Amino acid sequence: MKLPEAGLPAALSRLSECFASLPGVGSKSARRMAFHILNISDERAAEFAEAILGAKRDIHTCRICGNLSDGDLCVICASDRRDGSKICVVETAVDLLSIERTREYAGLYHVLGGVISPLRRITPDDLNIQPLVKRISAGGNGENSAINEVIMATNPGAEGEATAMYLSRLIRPFGVRVTRLAYGIPVGGNVEFSDNATLYRALEGRVEVE
Amino acid sequence: MKLPEAGLPAALSRLSECFASLPGVGSKSARRMAFHILNISDERAAEFAEAILGAKRDIHTCRICGNLSDGDLCVICASDRRDGSKICVVETAVDLLSIERTREYAGLYHVLGGVISPLRRITPDDLNIQPLVKRISAGGNGENSAINEVIMATNPGAEGEATAMYLSRLIRPFGVRVTRLAYGIPVGGNVEFSDNATLYRALEGRVEVE
Q1: Domain total for chain B?
Q2: B136 and B49 in one domain?
Q3: Which residue among A13, A102, A124, B194 is least packed, with the fewest CB closer than 10 Å?
């Protein structure tokens, strides 16, 4: 006797597939999530659906820096309490949030939207680079806040570093200081298990013990 | 200078919270999923939202067995290729799917919707038990398919076993055979790392080597 494949009802497997398309979600977790949706109230489910549509509808990129925002300007560009003389260049808005969480940086940002990658055919024209150059040549967000430092916070790796190098050559002519994040052993890491490239960078960037 | 908390835009943090409410999703993964939604097409996002609403709207429980279904009957109860003389009693529709995947079982199912739990104040009346008794006393789905075996596949544990015991006392008077899944060392597991309860059950349930 051949058994009919007693799979999920169509509506449920469709939902499962949607969850499985999310980053880091396998088919088993996706099915568990789909079953979870069946158990929540109709109101919660409607809120979830609306949250998806609402995020797509309301979230845009900031006109100045490319950060995510639900208005014309992001909270950082709109704030009058940020140090307008510094711009930190990041690959994505997620990187920006990570730096914000340190609560160490009070300047502005610029979100590139990726890195230059000949292999993946991503050229400088595909990135949010021209607006950065304009910001620097125009002297910053406000009138009286000339930019004097641009901090490269692209990811350490061939493409991130090449992009930082490219930007540096583009920006330095405007007379601004171009810096990059320090490389080294991560806090809580250890020397024994650090890879060669990291140790090399940590040695190279060694500083005087105070 | 006190920094303003540069969090996510409201629409994005709402979406993040929705994802974080799913089982097994932490706040970091939830944020990553929310960012992912921003990067998919509007069509895909609309499909996702509709999949959530559609699952809530279309998925009901099967009138006979309590399995999930998008019609009046689930695919198993609606099939004429299942062995109508056996009913396998499971706690949830997910358990049913797990047993289906073995492709070993051709009978019918009955989904309890949980287990009896005095601690969590779940009584037999809260579960899909009366319809099971009715199915058995009425002699199965069809006219000519008297049920002769009910297999308890509740989870091994105090509540699952107590529920199986309760059902067994309820069902046996109808003259059907009541069995339960075998307990023992899982395939691929090993004796050294098996817990006491499992080893005890494996010893107790030992079978003749053929």
Answers
A1: 2
A2: no
A3: A102
Per-residue pLDDT of chain B (210 residues; tens, 9 = 90+): 333 334 678 899 999 999 999 999 999 899 999 999 999 999 999 999 999 999 999 999 999 999 999 889 999 999 999 999 999 999 999 899 888 888 889 999 999 999 999 999 999 999 999 999 999 988 665 544 589 999 999 998 889 999 999 999 999 999 899 998 888 888 887 888 888 888 888 888 887 776
Tell which residue, A9, A64, A65, has the closest CA to residue A37.
Answer: A9
Which residue from A minimizes the CA distance to B49? A49
Nearest CB partner across the interface for B45, out of A3, A14, A56:
A56
**CA A129-A131-A133 angle, 5° bins:** 75
Is B56 in Cβ contact with A6 (below 8 Å)? no
Selecting from A8, A17, A51 the residue whose C-beta is nearest the C-beta of B18 gives A51
Q: How far is A142 from chain B (nearest CA, A)?
A: 18
Q: What is the pLDDT of residue A1?
A: 33
Note the pLDDT of residue B142: 52
Tokens of A56: 């797509």
Statement to judge: residues A28 and A93 lie in one domain: no
- Whether B51 and A15 lie within 8 Å, measured CB to CB: yes
CB contact under 8 A, A37 and B54: no
Shared domain for A101 and A145, answered yes or no, is yes
Range of the domain at B122: 82-180
pTM attached to this predicted model: 0.73
Residue B15 to residue B48: CA distance in whole angstroms = 13
In the predicted structure, residue A156 carries a pLDDT above the cut 90: no
Least Cα distance to B87 among B162, B183, B196, B180 occurs for B180
* Inter-chain CB proximity B51 and A18 less than 8 Å: yes
For A140, half-sphere exposure in the C-beta direction (CA atoms, 13 angstrom radius) is: 19
**Angle of helix B10-20 relative to helix A42-58, nearest 10 degrees?**
140
**Which of A45, A47, A58 comes nearest B11 by C-beta?**
A58
Q: How far apart are CA A71 and CA A52, in angstroms?
A: 18
Say which of B9, B22, B58 has its CB closest to residue A59: B9
pLDDT tens digit string along B77-90? Answer: 999 999 999 999 99
Q: What is the pLDDT of residues A172-191, one digit of tens each?
A: 999 899 998 888 888 888 88
Q: Are residues A88 and A14 in the same domain?
A: no
- Residue in B closest to A12 by C-alpha: B55
Assess if residue B63 is contained within a domain: no
Q: Is A106 helix (H, G, I), strand (E, B) or coil?
A: coil
